[in-house]
Fold this sequence. Notes:
The protein is mainly alpha-helical. The protein has helices at residues 22-26, 30-47, 51-64, 69-81, 85-98, 105-115, 119-132, 137-149, 153-166, 171-184, 187-200, 205-217, 221-234, 241-251, 255-268, 273-285, 289-302, 307-319, 324-337, 342-354, 358-371, 376-397.
Amino acid sequence: MTNKILITAILVGLLGFGCSNESYAADLTRKQKKEISLIKKAQVNFEQKNYDMAVEYYTRAIEVNPENAESFAKRGNTRFLMGNYRDAVIDYTKAIELDPKRENLYYNRGIAKANLNLYEDVIDDYTKELELNPVNVNAYLNRGTTHVLFKRYDEAIKDFSIAVGLDQKNVLAYYNRGIAKRNKGDYKGAIEDYSKVIELDSNYVDAYNNRGVAKFYLKDYNGAIEDYTRVLEIQNDFKQAYYNRGIAKLGLKKYESAISDFTKELELNPKYDRAYYEIGIAEARLEHYTSAVDNFTKAIELNPENAEYYAQRGALISRTDGDLEKAKQDLVRAITLDDKDPEKYLTRAIIFCKLKMYLPAIDDLNIVIKLDDKNMQAYDLRSYAISSLNSEQQKSVR
Length: 398
């Protein structure tokens, strides 16, 4: 399910350099005139997106006057747009050394560092920017999104809330706060924020999708289906919208309709293993066991490292009195991939009992009880396995 954080990557325009006052220009030295000329040429190339030339002219201007913070800042902006984030950080840092009170330098350096995944440093830069400019909405937004990356949801919500207070029509502030609330488990609060986004922008497709996710977690399956349907009305190829709607339909036990949605998802993404898996779940509940096994098999072929796929296929084969050896192999593979799930050991123990392999069944059930000491089914089955083993041993003695 979609869980998108949008980081505002806006390079705030910095103050230009130069003066059109002719009397002032007459007093400039040749060195100053040369610097101004180079900066103007750099700016022209920047506006024409000739970034390599812009960098060259800014570099020459810096050689003429290495104390001009503006030239470093603008060269940093140019390098950022070229994707050269490391050198952009170097330029912003130099500009800050020359003019530590200039607004937007910390902000722009923070964005460049974010692109280098230096997230702890990013927090510091946005915080310093806000000390200089406490009404910089974008700095609150970006610091909030960085807090989300570190799962510091309370801090993120605080930043997004301040952004909302500064700009009550800021879609990103509500949207990202909704994500932070959802990740924290506050689904009602998330729905309120996504609804505000939709109020401000009725075609904001991600807001509908994420509101549908939040409604799903609240088991409002009908509401989730409505939101996913709206997503598809806006964008009929939206990734996982059919899948998400299918999951909600499973919650309502609308298995045929769910299968239809999962099938449509596969038309858009033929290698989406989860869709095959969920079709298998739906087919099993409709008692279409052969089709269910086939779909679990397709999911495994696409993703052979998913333990759940093997576990479900093996459990279904066992439950329908199929090939118990194959069912056992599936559970062995599932446990190899995930040895911390008591349900997988329990399922394998059931298969062992059906194969009259009581000793390994008892071993598995001991593991289940160790992992989940309140699992009464495991205690009951272990008693049955012990009793059956004793009975077998008595028969062999006779």
